[in-house]
Each structure stands twice: as C-alpha cells, then as structure tokens.
Design goal:
alpha+beta; disordered C terminus; single chain; nine-stranded antiparallel beta sheet
C-alpha cells in the first residue's frame, strides 16, 4: 500500500502555493486593507467635521446672543444732540457703524453706548452704561486666514476706549461679519453715524447681524447665522421729534 506523501513526509509530491497564488492572495489582502483604511479614515473625518460644526454652532449662538443683548440695551440721550455733548462725555450716546473689508470679505465695525456692561471680577466697575465696540481682525496664527470678532467693553460715562486694546475674542473661524442698519422708514444702510447730519441724534430702528463661518468641508458654502434686533430707542431724532 502506498502511503500518501502528506503522511509519510517523504518529500515527494508535496503540494504548495504557486507564485501566482501568492500574488493573488497579496492583491486581495491589499484590497481588504484599503477598504478598511478608507472606512476608518472616513469615520474619523465625519467625526471631526461633526465636532467642528458643533463648535461653530456653539460660538455662533454665544456671539448672536451677546450682540443681541448689547443692542437691546443700547442707550442714546434724546435730550441733547451728540455734537452738543460735553467733551468729557467722550463716546457717550454715540452710535457708529462702519462697513469694512478684509481680503474682500465683510469685516464691519460697530460702536455704541449700551447698558449691558459685563462684570467679570470684583475689580471691574459695577454693571451700568458702557461703550461697546465690535471689531474684526484677521487671525494671523490661522493659515486659512479666518477672522476674529472682538468685543470691547469700556464702562462708565466720559471714559475713552483704549485704542490699543482689542477687547475679548467673542468668536473665531469667521469668514465675514456684516451689520445692516434700518431707519424708521425701513430703508437699509451699510453705515450709520449718529453725529452726522443724516442721522444726527438717532439710532437705527433695527440692526441686522450676519455672521458667516468658514466651512472647511466646502469653502464655497460658509455657515451663515442671521438675526435682526429691534432697538427700543430706535427712531430717536431731532429735538422736535423727541418732543
């Protein structure tokens, strides 16, 4: 009786893998690894994008709420024109919004008197009237050139805002910041100055705020957040209108 080679280990007629079979197995193994890697990296990309969007929505909510509360508490004296205020009053009662751009994107600036002064420590002045400023600057540390929105809060009447201080960062990863001002007739304006002849002693009836955030997944479709604030003191005008 002939003993199979697989049992006697005689070294004759031993079966094995051919070179073609080994190459085919490696090819299939490579495909499987590629599919696993693609699925793995895709999952983490989705997680990263979801976390990024969550951060954007959180920053947008905080920024919109803060701007809304500041504008709702806007204050402008109705019994005197800004040009007639004493020099010691400084920015008190002034409402000024200017259209600006950074690298072709809107980066508007806004300054006004508000009763929404924030107190962060015992050394700060108590809550009351303050000059609130919103400033936009480019983030030099960001390769994508995203914008930063600063909120500067100068408390008290007669205090001149520090030109060198930018205040606190309200939010980042912005693509543009736009303020639009509406008068009593509902007409939109890109700029507003309560010391000018056109808007002397007046604050807007409404202010529209548009924040656009960088969308890393699709740069051509930024995340947009829009709100409109009705100012309680809007529509204030000349002495005759105040009467």
């Amino acid at each position: 009786m002939k003993i199979p080679c697989s049992l006697c280990h005689c070294g004759e007629d031993r079966s094995g893998f051919t070179l073609l079979e080994i190459i085919l197995a490696l090819f299939i193994f490579t495909i499987v690894l590629s599919l696993i890697y693609t699925s793995y990296t895709g999952t983490f990309r989705i997680v990263d994008e979801t976390e990024y969007q969550a951060d954007i929505y959180r920053m947008a909510r905080i920024a919109i709420e803060r701007i809304y509360e500041d504008l709702e508490s806007v204050y402008a004296p109705q019994d005197a024109k800004p040009s007639e205020l004493d020099e010691e009053d400084g920015q008190f009662g002034k409402f000024e919004g200017n259209e600006a751009e950074i690298d072709g994107n809107r980066a508007d600036r806004l300054s006004f008197t508000s009763r929404a002064h924030l107190v962060f420590s015992e050394e700060d002045q108590p809550a009351g009237t303050a000059v609130i400023e919103y400033l936009v600057e480019e983030n030099d540390s960001d390769d994508e050139g995203a914008l930063l929105l600063f909120r500067k809060d100068t408390p008290g009447v007669g205090e001149t805002p520090d030109e060198e201080s930018r205040g606190l960062v309200l939010c980042e990863q912005l693509q543009s910041v736009s303020f639009t001002y509406y008068d009593a007739e509902g007409e939109a304006h890109e700029n507003w100055d309560s010391t000018s002849e056109e808007f002397e002693n007046m604050v807007p009836n409404m202010v529209s705020v548009l924040l656009e955030f960088v969308n890393k997944a699709d740069p051509e479709a930024p995340f947009k957040f829009l709100t409109t604030v009705t100012l309680p003191m809007g529509g204030g005008g000349s002495d005759e209108e105040s009467v």
